[in-house]
Amino acid sequence: MGRPFTVDDLDFMPDDGNTYELIDGVLIVSPPPGRRHQRALVRLAELLDDVCPDELAVLWPPYVVRTSPDTELRPDLQVAWDEDIVGEVVLDAPELVVEVVDPNTTINDLNNKKAAYARMGVPHYWVLDPARPSLLAHALDAGTDGYREVAYVHAEEPFEADDPFPVRVVLTELLGRPA
User: Which CATH architecture is the domain 33-175 placed in?
Assistant: First the structure.
């Protein structure tokens, strides 16, 4: 049996468009995101960036979160403290992580990555599904070392977040109406 992967091993992964991440030394490979995914990511990043306080930064790939030698995740979107960013690496838990799901990543985003972000101490974890459209928001629950659901909105329902900063998200305004 081979040894667990480390972040140094990621330098040797092929440049094939796939996303390579590590959770506790286990390699996770995801296919490249599609057009709907990218569109949702860009629009949400713009919305968050417009209201983000100056001491925080809204980031998307190639920025990664690396909290140990065997864990490196590449969130679709993250909001991190400026002081925690070195190059393209966030070295401590971001304040917010958003994963944009598609059929190839849903199980991983809702299970493995969610659990890893909770262990890292990421206070807010959102899952955006542009196909439905829906947004599932979680907040870290210190009593359970996991997340509790704080909102699940669809289409025209507004999501009013107070943390990590005030923002209002209405999916049909952000993404347009579903086909």
Answer: Alpha-Beta Complex (3.90)
CA angle 39, 37, 10 (to 5 degrees): 120
Tell me the CA distances in angstroms from 171 to 35, 128, 137, 139, 177, one per residue in order: 17, 9, 13, 20, 8
Q: Which conformational region is residue 20 in: left (phi greater than 0), alpha (psi within -120 to 50 degrees), or beta?
A: beta
What are the strands of the beta sheet with 26-30, ordered from one edge? 26-30, 19-23, 71-73, 64-68, 89-90, 85-86
Q: What is the pLDDT of residues 47-72, one digit of tens each?
A: 999 999 999 999 999 999 999 999 99
Tell me the whole-structure pTM to 2 decimals.
0.93
| Dihedral, 44, 48, 49, 53 alpha carbons, nearest 10 | -170
Domain boundaries, the chain: 33-175
